[in-house]
Amino acid sequence: MNNSNFSKLPPRFNFSKSYYVPIYLVIIYFVVKSFSQVELSFSSIINSLPEMKQFFQELFPPDFSRIDSVISSLILTFQIALVGTILGIFISFPISIFASRTQSPNKFLYFLARAVVSLFRTVPDLIWAIFFVVTVGLGPIAGVLTIMVDTIGFCGRFFAEAFEEVDPGPVKALNAIGAGKLSTLMCAVIPSALPSLVNSSLFSLEKAVRSSVVLGLVGAGGIGVELKTAMDMFRFDEAATIILAIFILVLIVERVSSWVRGKIMEVG
Amino acid sequence: MSKDNLVLNVSNLSKSFGDTEVLKGVSFSVEKGEAIALLGHNGSGKSTLFNCMAYLLEPTSGFIRVSELDFSKLSKKALRNARSKIGFIFQKHNLVNRLGVLSNIIHGKLSTDPSPRLWFQKFAPSALRLKALNLLEKVGLAHIAGKLAGQLSGGQSQRVAIARALMQEPELILADEPTASLDPQAGTEVMELLYKLAQDEGITLVFVTHNVEHALKYSNRILALKAGELVIDKSTKEITKEEIDTLYE
Ligand SMILES: Nc1ncnc2c1ncn2[C@@H]1O[C@H](COP(=O)(O)OP(=O)(O)O)[C@@H](O)[C@H]1O
Ligand SMILES: [Mg+2]
Predict the structure, then answer these.
(1) Distance in Å from the first CA to the final CA of chain B
(2) The whole model's pTM is what?
(3) Which of B47, B120, B160, B182 has its CA 20 to 30 A from that of A259?
(4) B65 close to A (CB below 8 A)
């Protein structure tokens, strides 16, 4: 072994010298503290087992007497999700072009679009729902707007990434031909990004269906309203029917979307 | 040489990236119908020279004229239009894989006709579709008109890229290592086709290659760059093996 080579080795981990030590200690302290702070205890879980059992017993057998109204609010829920997602995807499209490093016409629009998308994404959907319920009022429109904003936060980001990942070769070729910006976008960028775009859109529809259920809990329309009413009146057997219906809806949407996804990926 | 016959005039062209001077005062002229091989080490500045010729990169100094047009004086729109005169063939075919072969060829017309009908062959005017098919036949691939570009072999893709360039009705074709990612046989076929089509249609051809055999066989003149300087500009008949060898030392 040649000793003169030692100096060329990258440094070892040196704990005692590391100025990260206090940070590590704070993190460890915080994690340990968190466990005690949330009052996690086996005894409280064990003690509540009878109540859990009671709850599940009251769920069964589900009460199907209001199935008509459950189905119609379920369909409304899906419609809220669908309309919100479609609006969101349409609006995401131009925003994500501005928000992609490679396609953005200028730096200002790039940062603006990024900021809008981040804001829409980082504020949780429940807060948007409350905001829209308070401002535009109770009902499906608050749900649609919430899903729309949520979709822009999601698709805006993933569409932009899809545009950034497009092979630069064909874009360069069309530039060399003398094609304009719009032609290049339509002929090279979007066709190449299409599978990603469809994929993200389907995911956001699935996500929207799931969150549109929760949105009803704060009054933004749909089946969540029914669920909250049933729960508030301790009609757990009715709630069971609703939960079952939601489960089936989510399952159907996920199945159909994965089938569509498979079809899209087969081409090219 | 008569001025009417001048297709390309590169005059005292320099290009720097930051502090590094990649092209150093390159000058040469190309006449209509010439076939020119451009040789040089990796990094000698060949691709940069090509990019400057189409003004995809702005030269640091010097000027470029393509059939009497001074590219530095053109507006953005006029520049796009002027680019239709130059067909580019890259090492990678650079087709849009998810679109059909015919759509890709029709895109060659986008510089002079920005109509959205040209985006996809399904909506393109019949005359253009037919023209694209005829070009496909010229490159020997009429039977794959219905395929997606992503389904083609490397050699086929490069032929489609040639058809796309012909769609532009260019006066000049710049081919930057068009055969470098192909196997030797496909490479020779593509080079042969490119040369023959350019000669038949009276299109001036400048191509970069590392294949000395191709350079000698498919050119009437050889240019060579070494560290950004034009060190050879000679008719292919007069060139010697020794001269070429000095390029790669
Ligand atoms: N966009 C760029 N920015 C900085 N340097 C570049 C850029 N393009 C090319 N170069 C440099 O210019 C030199 C010539 O590159 P290139 O023209 O691609 O050579 P060649 O095609 O002959 O192999 C190389 O040293 C390369 O690193
Ligand atoms: Mg190169």
Answers:
(1) 34
(2) 0.82
(3) B120
(4) no
